[in-house]
Each structure stands twice: as structure tokens, then as C-alpha cells.
Amino acid sequence: MDTMPENKKSMTVHRFLTLLLAYLIFCVAGGVVVSGFLLPGVYGVNAVANNMMPNLSVDNVDFNVNDLPQQSRLYASDGHTVIATFYAQNRIVVPLNEVSDTMQKAVVAREDRRFFEHSGVDTQGVLRAFIQTYVKQGDTQGGSSLTQQYVKNVLMNQAEEDNDPIAEYHAREETIARKMREMLIAVQMEKKYSKAEILQGYLNIAQFGTNTYGVETAAKRYFNKAAKDLDAGEAATIAAVTKNPAKFDPTVDMQASQEQRNIVLDLMEQEGYISAADRDKAKAKPLEQMLHVQNVDAGCQAAGDAAFFCDYVTKQIMNSKEFGKTQEARNKLLKEGGLDIYTTMDVNANTAAMDAARATIPVDDPSGFEVAMAAIKPGTGEVLGFGLNRIYDATENSGGGTRTAMNFAVDQVDGGGYGFPEGSTWKPINMVAWMKNGKSINQPLRTTTSYPKSSFNCKTASGQEYGFGGDNWAVSNSGGGTVNPETPLQGLVRSHNTTQASMAQQIGLCSIADTAAEMGYHNSPRDQMDVYSESSFQPSMTIGSSNSSPLTMANVYATIAAKGVECSPIAIKKVTDKRNKQIQVPSANCHQAIDPKIAETTAYALNQGVVQPGGEASTTQLDGGRKTFAKTGTHEDKYMLTGGFVPQVAAYVAVGNAEGQVSFTGKTINGVSRGSWYGMYIATPAWKKFMNDYLAAAGIPADNNYGTPEPKYLGAVQATQQQPATPQQQGAQPQTPAQPQAQTQPQQSATQPQPAAQPQPAAPAAPAQHE
């Protein structure tokens, strides 16, 4: 039969002699220190008044304030807007000279009024506690000095850091052995460190409420001010909490907290720290009128509309070796490292993107379609913001749907999904690849509705060969059939698919894939990111059948906007740790990926042919006559896309069901019903609203000088100089090529596309349509 544990308060000879011996030891070893309260001499003992405590080690215990777990803060690009905080213990460490004199006095009055007289152990307090607890058998009395309490907190914290539950238990247990160890360490500390250092350490490590550690965090939590600005009533409120953080937290029990505040005010008056008049004035003010409570919710869950961006940043940290060798180490650094993380998020951009997404399709719209948007600053890789018509929710009960932690605007590895097919928004990539091969965008091409897959067989620069079998690829334009002949420019302006296939035949599919990768393209699925992935590297990639994230496609358009400079998307500009040491962050690796003249000619085609009146994407034209570069797209009847840029901003929008293919046909979306939906009907308004709103809010001036074409890429080429498709490939009689425009008027040829020829019949086995 198990016996009940011995009552710790029962008096035994052994316990009596142990306590008495401890008392005598500390009476002799401790001595008496005579000191004024925080005299200038105390501040002058160490540089601690202006700096963090130096490395302290006593009895193999690290007392360095800088090594305490501290909250990390995520800032927007302006450097002061806090997006989110992360912590294992919600703490901000500050030096003693950033804590008000009143706050220091309040803690001493409450916890250890003889702090500046003893040498680590308050012998009077120990004797009083001994008699009250063990002789009179009254309520348990602690008798611990403020130094001992600091030691206890450090021991508990170190045990938690070491993940040592046994050590943590021993640091908390109410035993004589634990008290003895605390006393011994406290005496050693007092011989080595100043009172100012010890007080500073205590103020930074103590728990001042639920999820509230350290006096600076407490000041911000309860009164929305810094610790250096606390008055007597506020300081007394905070100092009172440490006796019972769970109960005396003013947000938990305001009445109890106010009663404890008044007790501390009385103690401060008794010690001569405040006058009786000041005490009465502070006590007369109801605590409820003093509080200005701030939210202490941690992480992206509390970041509001910046939550999806916040989540992307955390994924970047978790996936980057710069922040630690393992994900566990990176997570620990984020939660405990006191990092200041300065991100690329532009508050105006993120707000405009979220507003545009929800205005296009409300969160609770019965259609259930997702809107996912990403914006990048060309030439920098800086991600400006995300827009999703969803509410961020990372809790276990979020259940997906309108509440989700998945950011559909980014790759799967960064917390997104499988991505969206690009449809015709891919076609500028084909045009860049075409010009990289030295060809004119006004060269007439023979087109057909059926291409032998073997005609797309190709070899990469490294010698890797790819083949696509012996059957045919049936492809037609959105309205059916094909236009023959047609130039690459006309194929882009009219968003024709058959012309893209003809271009790929001539320059090789590998050339298009390599160009896409150079421009920043990769697939979204985690295990299929390579552009040469078997699931995506098919002839149909030329009309946007691969799955990518809006962020990736925004980056592709940013490469065109930046005169061919490609950068890896980045979300973090700078990170400093709790010692203010800068941590290396992932680089954007900006480099010249494509010829600037090719980039500008592509931009010219997008603006003059696609956006200008009569162009397929004329609805993208931005306000105020700002020169606009954009392309719309539709994948089958299930995904609507728009990508585009001005020189300062590139953005991309995808609309569809991110969890699975759902048809738009006949759907009512945001109160509008249509039999057929296209990108220009829904993705384009979202893109345009974001661009107009952000450009206006950020005060970004128009730059209408970009997009000057290179004449050599506009010059027409005689039909005899090309490799036309055979009538067998076409499945119909070839038409006579249109006469090319005179080379003396290249810009007229690009600006004024020739009228479309009569479309040919579609192939019998019609493929999935892309626009």
C-alpha cells in the first residue's frame, strides 16, 4: 500500500538543523551591504546602465540577459509597422536605464525592501519565514530575496531551454535543497555583480502576467507604453503581478489586481519612495481607467490582412539555411531569438491586393472560387504583397474553405497549393524565346490544328534529349480552328494558340523551357518544380498548361518590366538578432537574364498590340493614360488569369477553384451571371483595381517611356525563309501567306496587325481550349 507523501511543513530535527545552519551560514557569509537606493555610484559600477548585461556565469548557470528567450518582430517595409510577433516567451529585453525609477522602486518595495542592504540573502526574511512556517505552523512564507527569485527564474528558464523536465521540476519544487542552492548562488552573484545588474536581470526575466515576460512587455501589454514612461500607479500594478501571475494579471481579475496595486503603493509610501499624497492620488484612480490593454496574440494568426504575407515570411525562414541548419533550429531562432525581421511588404500594396481580391469575389460568395494575387517590385525581387479572398486561419479547426492557412498565391513549398494553369498569360514567354533565337515578331508563320508531337523533340544546351511520341497534338484557337498564316505578334495580340505551336516547332520546345526558367519560371507542386518535369514539359506548355503560382508568374512579368533583369522573389530585406547582430538573409540574386532589347520589344508588343484599343487585353488599361503592359488568359473554362506591369510594379491574378477543377460556365459570381467567363471578365478587373489603387496610394508616378522596340525584331521576313508546315500537318489546304509589311515601316506593322484570315475547321479531336 502506498503511503502519503510526508508533509513538507512537518518539523523534524533534520529540517530544523538544516534551516538553522543555512541561516547561520548566510548571516556570516552574507554580511551587510550599506547602499543608497540606485545611487549614481551604483549606475557607474558597470556599463550595464547603457548596455545589456555582460556574459555572467555562476555555478555553471548563464545569467546573460541577452540569452533569455525574446520575442521576434516582423516589420513591414516602412521599418516601423509591426506585422506580427513570435515568441516562446513574450519578452522584450531592455537595459535598466530604460525602466522608470518608479518601476524599479515598485519592484523592490514589493519583492525585497532590504535588497540594497543584504548580500544576496535576506537573513531577516529567512528567519521570519522559518518561524512563521515551521515554528508557528502558519502559512508558508518564502523569505526569498529578489536575487534569489532571479536565480530561480534563470534556473527554470535554463531547464526549459535544455528540454530537461527533471531540472525544471527541481527548479520549481518547494524543498529545502532547492532553497539552499538558490541561496548559495545568490551569495556568489552578489559578490560578482552589482545590484543594478541583478535588478536589471530580474526585471527582464520575471513573469508579469499571462504570456507576459519582462517589464517592457508588461508596460506595452497593459498600458501601451514603454517601461521608461511608467508612473507610480502603473508601476505598482505591474510589480504586484509577480506574486501570482495567473491571478493578479489585470486582464484576468481586475479587482484582485487593483487590490494588489494598492498594497504595493502602500509599501512604496512606507519605504519613502513616493509621498502619501501621490499614493492616495494613484489609489483613487480605478484600474479600469488606467488600462490600455494590447493584444498579445502571437504569430500570423494575429496579423489580420497581412497574415498571408506573414505566413510566407515564416516559410522562407523555415526553408532557408541562413537561419539554422535544421528546421527545429530555425523555429527556435524565430520564437526565442529576439529577431527584428524587416520585410518587403508594402502596407499599401498588401492592403490594395486584399481589397481587390475580396471586391472581385467576396469571401462568402456562393461560387466558392478563389482569387489569388501577388505583386513584385521589378528589378529587386521584393514581394510587395498578396491578395486572397480568404480569411487566414491556422488553427486546427479552420476546416479550409473560406478560412485557410494556405496561401494560394505562392508555391506549395512556401505554404501554397499546386498552382494554376497560366493559359494565354504564358505567351509572352514564347515571344521572348522567339526573339532570343534571332527571329522577327512579324514573321508570317504557317499554322495548323494538328502537329506531330515528334516535331517538338528537342535537345537542351547540356545535351539532354526529349521526345514526345509519334501521335499528333490537336490544338485550336479559342473560337475554334486556326488562322493561317499569322505572325507571332498577331498570335499574341489575338491570343491564338496555333501560332504558339508553330513557333515552338521552329525554335524548339527546349528553347522555350530554358527561356521560361531564365525569366524566373518554375512549377508550383513541390515535387515537380523543374520546368522539365515530365508532368509539365509537353507541347501544351506553350499555351499555359503547366501549374504555377501567381507569385512565380508575377516574377516572370517583373523580368520583362526590369529590362530583362530577373530576381528570385524575396520577402526579407534585413534581420538583426537580440544582440543587434545582422543575420544573412536569402539573396534575390538579381542578374541580366534576357537581352534588354528583347524585354522592351516584348513590352512594346504587350502595350501596343494587346492593351491598346482593339487589343485582346484593352480592358487592362490603367487610369490616367498610364502606359500599361498586360496579358489576359483563360484555361479551359476553369481558370481565369491576368498578368501585367508598369515599370515599377508587376502583378498577377489567378481566379478559379484552387482545390480542384470547377467550371465557370453558367456561374453567378458576385451577383453577375454569365454563360461563359473569360479572364477579362473577372481576373482583369481584380488586377486593374489593385494596380490603380496601389499606384495612387503609393504616389507612384507614371513612366511612359518604357517599351521601345528593337527594329531588328520587328523586321518582316519572306515566307521562303521559314520552315512552313506541310498540308498534311495542317489537315487543310494552305492559304497564301499575307504580304509582309515593308521593312521601312516596322512599327506600323507591329501596331497595325493584319486582319485575321478566315479560320480553318477545327481538328476532329478538339483539345482543351486556352485563351
Walk me through the structure.
This protein is of the alpha+beta class. The protein folds into 3 domains: 13-44 and 92-290, Orthogonal Bundle (Penicillin binding protein transpeptidase fold), CATH 1.10.3810; 340-419 and 549-709, 3-Layer(aba) Sandwich (Beta-lactamase); 426-520 and 718-771, no CATH class. 37% of the residues lie in helices and 11% in strands. It has 26 helices and 24 strands. A hairpin with a 4-residue loop joins strand 6 and strand 7 (382-388). Helix 12 (254-270) packs antiparallel against helix 13 (276-284). The model is unreliable at 1-14, 26-55, 134-142 and 717-770 (pLDDT under 50).
Any descriptors?
elongated; Penicillin binding protein transpeptidase fold; disordered C terminus; alpha+beta; 771 residues; disordered N terminus; five-stranded antiparallel β-sheet; 26 helices; Beta-lactamase; 11% strand
Question: Strand portion, in percent?
Answer: 5-15%
Mean pLDDT: 83
| CATH topology name of the largest domain | Beta-lactamase
What coarse outline follows from CA principal-axis ratios? elongated
The biggest beta sheet is recorded as:
5 strands, mixed
For this structure, what is the CATH homologous superfamily of the largest domain? DD-peptidase/beta-lactamase superfamily
Radius of gyration: 35 Å
Structural class: alpha+beta
Low-confidence stretches: 1-14, 26-55, 134-142, 717-770
List the strand order in the largest sheet. 4-3-5-17-18
Tally of helical runs:
26
Number of self-contained structural domains = 3
Report how far the terminal alpha carbons are from each other: 81 Å
DSSP summary, beta strand count: 24
